[in-house]
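Treating backbone geometry as a discrete language has practical consequences that deserve illustration. The amino acid sequence and the backbone structure tokens for this protein are reproduced below.
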Amino acid sequence: MSGLLAGIKVVSLTHYLQGPSCVNFLADLGADVVKVERTGGAYERHWSGAKAFLNDVSVFFMMVGRNQRAIELDIQSEEGQKILWRLIEKADVLVENFRPGTLDKRGFDYDSVKARNPGIIYCSLTGYGTDGPSRTKPGQDLLLQSLSGLATLSGRAGDPPVLMGTAIVDQHAATLGALGIVSALFARARTGKGMRVDSNLLSAALDLQIEPMNYHLNGAKLFDRSTSGVSSRFHQAPYGVFKTADGWLTLSLSDGATLAAAFEDPQFVRFSKEDQFDKREEINALVAQHMQKKTVAQWEDVFAKHGVWNARVQSYDEVLADPQIKINQSVLEFDDPNAGHVRNLAHPVRYDGQAPGLRRNPPTVGQHTDEVLRELGYGADELARFRASGAIGPDRAATPFDRKASAPASTYTRKASR
């Protein structure tokens, strides 16, 4: 199932998470993705959250670098630009997540690229869009959770705005970008025409709020954040996390009669469906009193008998031990010559029941520079000249990459958008 996009050539000018995650979807599906990096490697090779490195290899890079090839190229040099043009002219897709205008200054804007490759799909992944007053502002997941209103939806009354503890906006924008690219490729197969695809963090953050934002747009008033267990500003009670005698359990959308039977408390019967919205704090307080009387396991048994939707709050170790995770093939394990044994989340979609596998380990920096340039028609003398001028990276067989010795990536990536 890894060959669905076989034959599609992708030039990846991406950094951080939004861009690399987008092209990683394409690479998993069989596209030939060539990651173009500055000498020394992209930002994500030098950084990893939680200081997670395997034998000095960034886990952050490993999670979005598989099934790709990597070259080192100075796209600010004249020769480097010529090489990039040759790569683009043979490509089906270009994906970039620099801030708007950055590539334009180098002559790689959409109109210029389209003029030389009319059939190309040119995907820009930005923070706020390619136009408008915010186009050049820093685009980063945490910032967009705030600017989009997402941070106002969760938490309890009196809490500060609550930010998600994972980069949900980055990942959703990456997914939307990949969807746009595949859709554009499908359209090109029918029309022969390329097109520009834009996915940005702001639009992705709004799309994540499809329910509350659409209610608001159509005149509905969202509830204030709850003082008790309700975990959204528009659902009826009970809908949220409740403390038990030994842990936490989440309940979702049971009517009064069902709650009365499960808790053996006739008080719940008097609450109508309208009351579950209008008196949700009262209902949640009553639910909370009962929930503390039994353990998670005991309540799971009770709720199973009465059809109450529930789920225990699990740690990551408990999640990974869940047999459903194994059945879904959610974790991809492989051995890497530098990082050692690696465990990554796998491609999330199944095709005829199978997850796309590993064709290529995440590449070392510049690993495929010579290979890719030879495919473009360059000979050994030209490669030597490019190296002498600094247009391409060094011969990594002779000078293996050392993350600690490499120059910081900050000067190169400061202009990039997530």
